[in-house]
């Protein structure tokens, strides 16, 4: 099963995520791109609903870490611990969230903590971009990973 297919199955198993219409556009060693139609995520101003943007960003970063761990054969549950969002412009088109793969050094430190303590944290970033590729919303979040057996 490809990384994208696996991540899509994980997302589809969550009813609130299915309601957003989230589709995995890319999931590979470079990161994750999630898309969702504006029609399912529109607010009263005819632009993207802030809660949908927050959800898509949170999921993109979560998916990038989840996939990076899976590729390395690491069994862990991944949770968002806290995050900061910056909304810099309204989005009047479909939603597209991008999260880069975790930085090698930060991921290495997380793997070390998982091996030693069974848990650890990492800071990740994600962005929603408009049709021209400009970031309109950004997330900086701390994610926790807890080893499973």
Notes on the protein architecture:
By secondary structure, this protein is of the alpha+beta class. It is built from 4 helices and 6 strands, in the order ααββαββαββ.
Determine the strand fraction and express it as a percent band: 35-45%
Rg, please? 15 Å
Helix proportion range: 25-40%
Task: Count every beta strand, where a strand is a DSSP E run of 2 or more residues.
Answer: 6
> What structural category characterises the helix and strand content?
alpha+beta
Please give the alpha-carbon distance between the first and last residues. Answer: 21 Å
Short description:
With 149 residues, the protein is an alpha+beta fold. It contains 4 helices and 6 strands; from the N terminus they run ααββαββαββ.
Write the topology of this structure.
Elements: H1 3-12, H2 15-20, E1 23-28, E2 31-36, H3 50-71, E3 76-87, E4 95-100, H4 104-117, E5 119-129, E6 135-147
Antiparallel strand pairs: 1-2, 2-4, 3-6, 4-5, 5-6
């Amino acid at each position: 099963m490809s990384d994208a297919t696996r991540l899509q199955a994980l997302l589809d198993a969550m009813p609130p995520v299915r309601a957003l219409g989230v589709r995995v556009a890319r999931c590979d060693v470079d990161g994750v791109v999630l898309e969702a139609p504006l029609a399912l995520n529109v607010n009263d101003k005819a632009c993207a609903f802030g809660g949908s943007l927050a959800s898509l960003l949170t999921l993109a970063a979560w998916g990038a870490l989840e996939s990076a761990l899976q590729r390395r054969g690491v069994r862990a549950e991944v949770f968002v611990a806290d995050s900061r969002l910056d909304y810099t412009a309204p989005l009047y088109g479909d939603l597209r969230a991008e999260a880069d793969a975790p930085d090698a050094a930060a991921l290495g430190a997380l793997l070390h903590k998982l091996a030693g303590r069974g848990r650890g944290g990492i800071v990740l970033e994600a962005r929603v971009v408009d049709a021209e590729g400009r970031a309109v919303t950004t997330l900086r979040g701390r994610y926790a990973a807890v080893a499973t057996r």
